[in-house]
Amino acid sequence: MNEPNEPDPTELQALLRRAADGDSLAWSAIVAEFAPRIFGLLRAQCRDGDLAEEITQSTFCTLAAKISAYVETGRFESWVFRIAMNRLRDEMRRRSRQARPMETEPMQARSVRSKGIADAETDEIHARLARAMARLPEADREIIDLRHTGAMSFKALSDYYEEPVGTLLARHHRALRKLRVMLEDMGVKADDAGGVEG
User: In terms of pTM, does the model score above 0.70?
Assistant: First the structure.
């Protein structure tokens, strides 16, 4: 049985075959299925919408170039997410060599003043969640983002990491538990942060 966000393998295989043969409707369906999830994952990982959009587009350019050689073995989702994450890692390494600090605090303060109190409280919870996520080890942050932002099933995660599902369930659980502890230390209840469970 497929998880809710997992595409039907038979349908996906047919779409991939048609896209490889030049069917623009099949290609559009693949992009519609995966682009929002890839973009969301990349944005969560790098905190830069423009960069996430650029890498999402780059990922689909690579996919378009390689799709005719791709043989579907039930690992397409993990393959396309791996392309995206590798592109992001390459870009982050390149940027770290040219790093320059960004000042974000004044912009955040102006943003809070222009919103209502409820929105400001929600923004504060989101900011604390972002800070807690940033403090997690990269491996923990990645598995949480792939699962929740990228909406990858544990089977797809298993293909992506080439590890058993049980191992990934345990890693995911430990990562969420670390995140929950950090949030509690920051004064955020798990329910306030979207139900972080561990």
Answer: no
